[in-house]
Write a structure and sequence with these properties.
The complex is a heterodimer of chains A (450) and B (261). In chain A, a hairpin with a 4-residue loop joins strand 21 and strand 22. Chain A has helices spanning 2-12, 29-38, 69-72, and strands spanning 41-42, 53-60, 84-91, 99-102, 106-110, 119-124, 145-151, 164-169, 173-178, 183-187, 211-213, 220-225, 229-234, 239-243, 258-263, 273-278, 282-287, 292-297, 311-318, 325-330, 334-339, 344-349, 360-367, 383-388, 392-397, 402-406, 421-427, 432-438, 442-448. Helices cover 6% and strands 38% of the residues of chain A. Chain A is globular, with a radius of gyration of 31 Å. Classes of the chains: A mainly beta (450), B alpha+beta (261). The A-B interface holds A 35-36, 39-45, 49, 354-357, 368, 370-371, 373, 375, 377-378, 399-401, 419-423, 425-426, 428, 432, 450 and B 98, 109, 111-114, 117, 122, 125-126, 128-129, 131-133, 135-136, 139, 146-149, 151-153, 155-158, 172, 174, 188, 207, 209-210.
């Protein structure tokens, strides 16, 4: 009994616990799951997370056209000025920009706000194409180069009700289209491109004069600037023109300058025009039935399908059998149209986008859709818009991608390389590209963030 | 394999001394065909003692799918196939809401996020951007001079691709299924590793202001070899292997000739 009691005592004594917690092995599945469920959940996208609108610019910066002053005058002593911005760079703006236009060394940005300031301009201002920009150093003089988007004061009757619909820029003049107060023009008027009488020996720099145009047959819905002429398209489908006409780009039947906007006739008389385009000395118009009409300079075979002459001063119908045309874009030497199916056809002279072997053609040639990302895998990709610079083309697809091709003058294509691009090449923009404006050596794009 | 009937041994003509037919005990030399003793099965032993098996493009432990192996002479074809730089197709499954250290769902949890705001449209937009930047990389790493007509023609046909070493490039990506929080993508890629695909899933999650982990990586095509040619585990026997090799031989030869000339 003594031995049995002793044994019971030995086993009854509890094991000495060290109190260091549980086993040190790998956590079991249940422990992992519990740890996961207990972890905090982070929220990165707020309830009202909206896609923001942004503006990206690229190209030659010394003219100030990009609107970023640190490229021209660096803010720190050791930084060097950046002559060319070869990839898209964000331009911070206070308001949402709804329309942008690039001229020859200057840019106009417009917003459809009802605030007093609706239009900003940046770049060359030697002919007051950006209005009068009062210099801060000397209050009597104006700036010749504007390095940052600066507000342009428009003489509006109802500044807090009128909205700016669209802006357009030519070589040394600009047009601003409003919804209820007609068209405002400013800049060089030596050929009457601003729609007012040519004054001999007028000094255009530091001029306060902004002219207003209201006499059209109906409301103006689109304004387009050529190099030294202006085109106005009205709601009724008619086209008015004024300015330099030596190549017939005013389309009025003569080769003189016109200083008052005059209606065009010829093959577009009675036709409902839905879009007009011009950048150099040639012009294209698209009707609601899908036909395209052209007039102006034809030295580069732009209108060679209808005539052998190098200047056409009356709008002529271009009989292309490529399908119904939705949009046209006219560059300096080459033209492009977009058909209803989403295909691009190019003709003219220069780098047209079909490799280095195609330099000129009078008949439109289609650019294969596979270059825009179309394949059996993604068969719903097609081009939605086409735009032209002086010797570049830009195409926007329905997926929001931007393709450019043409002469890469001072890095204006935005590809990051300095060589010319002979076939459509994607530009990497952090967002969905909604619109693009092409100039001679720079481009501006309006982008929605993801 | 060793039990299969082998080639008949070579025969040779030897002059053997045999007793003369006429009799008499004198030995004559008579030409007879006798098998070469050196090729006798008992001298040679089993025909295959070891098999040289080479592996094609790598496949992770956590991934599954088509895995190409070369046997014997096929090893040389493997190097040729590698130099063809053909695309591979993967089916990648992912799940939103988690972020782990090795981008797969078995790793250590780092962060959890909300994902209710994600829609199929947003995902497809991100996929379009990925495809765009990779398409640019494809053209840049292919080392063709962009200023030539030849480059234009290849670009039209979609045949431009890097023919030597390059970082991983995705040639096509699309969403097969989308059911929050899970989604499935089909990815066509070059020079990639499965961990790169998992990292891509993670980056897609980040881009959509959430996070994602990869739940499944399955290779459905490796160059010319598809799932139909692949042998499942139940068919890993001699007969099926021989049939598979025979079926693929023509495909491999035509592809190598087409690409490498």
């Amino acid at each position: 009994a003594m031995a049995g009691a002793g044994r019971a005592l030995r086993t009854a004594r509890p094991l000495h616990r060290r109190g260091l917690g549980g086993a040190a092995g790998p956590p079991s599945t249940r422990q992992l799951r519990e740890a996961e469920e207990a972890a905090p959940v982070f929220q990165y996208a707020g309830k009202a997370a909206k896609r923001k609108d942004r503006v990206f610019v690229w190209g030659f910066s010394y003219s100030g056209a990009l609107g970023i002053p640190s490229f021209v005058k660096p803010d720190a002593g050791w930084k060097k000025p950046r002559r060319i911005q070869s990839t898209p760079y964000r331009l911070e703006t206070e308001e949402k920009i709804s329309s942008a236009a690039c001229g020859y060394g200057f840019t106009l940005l417009a917003s459809n706000t009802t605030d007093v300031t609706k239009v900003w301009g940046t770049g060359l201002n030697k002919d007051s194409q950006l209005g009068f920009q009062r210099s801060r150093r000397d209050k009597t003089k104006g700036y010749e180069y504007v390095l940052e988007p600066s507000p342009i004061p428009l003489p509006l009757e109802k500044p807090q009700q009128t909205q700016v619909l669209q802006v357009s820029c030519g070589r040394a003049h600009s047009l601003v289209l409003t919804d209820s107060e007609g068209v405002f023009t400013m800049g060089n008027n030596s050929y009457g491109q601003c729609g007012r009488k040519v004054i001999e020996d007028e000094i255009y720099s530091e001029s306060h004069l902004i002219h207003q145009l209201k006499e059209f047959d109906s409301r103006v819905v689109q304004v387009v600037c050529g190099q030294d002429h202006s085109l106005f398209r009205t709601k009724k489908g008619s086209v008015y023109a004024c300015g330099w006409g030596a190549d017939g780009q005013t389309g009025l039947g003569h080769y003189n300058i016109t200083s008052v906007p005059t209606k065009l006739h010829g093959d577009i008389a009675g036709v409902n025009v839905i879009q007009v385009s011009s950048y150099g000395d040639c012009c294209l118009a698209v009707s609601d039935e899908g036909d395209v009409f052209g007039w102006g300079n034809s030295e580069y075979l732009q209108l060679a399908s209808v005539t052998e002459t190098t200047q056409v001063n009356v709008p002529r119908h271009l009989p292309f059998k490529i399908g119904k045309i939705k949009e046209a874009a006219c560059g300096g030497t080459g033209n492009a149209v977009l058909t209803e199916e989403g295909n691009i056809f190019v003709w003219g002279y220069g780098i047209l986008g079909k490799g280095p072997n195609l330099i000129e053609t009078a008949v439109p040639e289609m650019i294969p859709p596979s270059l825009f990302g179309w394949s059996d895998f993604n068969s719903d990709i097609c081009v939605a818009h086409i735009r032209c610079g002086l010797s570049q083309f830009a195409a926007l697809t329905n997926k929001g991608e931007l393709f450019v091709w043409g002469k890469n003058l001072r890095g204006c294509l935005g590809t990051g390389r300095m060589e010319d691009q002979y076939f459509p090449w994607r530009v990497t923009v952090p967002g969905e590209v909604v619109d693009v404006a092409c100039g001679v050596d720079h481009m501006v794009s309006l982008v929605k963030s993801f | 394999l060793n039990a299969a009937p082998r080639r008949a041994p070579r025969q040779q003509i030897r002059f053997l001394p045999t007793p003369a037919a006429s009799g008499g005990g004198a030995l004559e030399l008579v030409p007879t065909m006798v098998p070469v003793l050196a090729e006798h099965p008992l001298v040679q032993g089993p025909r295959f003692r070891r098999l040289k098996i080479g592996a094609g493009h790598r496949l992770d432990v956590k991934a599954s799918g088509v895995f190409v192996l070369g046997v014997g002479h096929g090893n040389k074809l493997l190097t040729d196939l590698y130099n063809c730089h053909l695309t591979k197709v993967y089916t990648v499954g992912g799940m939103f809401g988690k972020a782990t250290d090795d981008f797969s769902d078995t790793g250590k949890l780092i962060e959890k996020t909300t994902f209710d705001h994600i829609t199929r449209e947003k995902l497809e937009r991100i996929l379009a951007v990925i495809q765009g930047t990779n398409h640019k990389a494809l053209l840049m790493y292919s080392n063709i001079d962009m200023q030539t007509q030849e480059a234009y023609e290849l670009a039209v046909k979609g045949l431009i691709r890097p023919m030597d070493k390059s970082p991983p490039i995705i040639t096509a990506i699309r969403c097969l299924q989308f059911a929050l929080p899970e989604f499935q993508l089909e990815i066509h890629c070059l020079h990639e590793t499965q961990q790169y695909l998992r990292k891509t899933v993670h980056e897609i999650g980040l881009e959509l202001k959430s996070s994602a982990v990869c739940t499944q990586v399955r290779r459905t095509r490796d160059g010319v070899f598809t799932l139909d040619d692949a042998l499942p585990r139940t068919q890993w026997d001699l007969q099926s292997i021989r049939d598979a090799i025979r079926n693929c031989r023509l495909k491999v030869e035509t592809e190598i000739e087409k690409t490498l000339g």
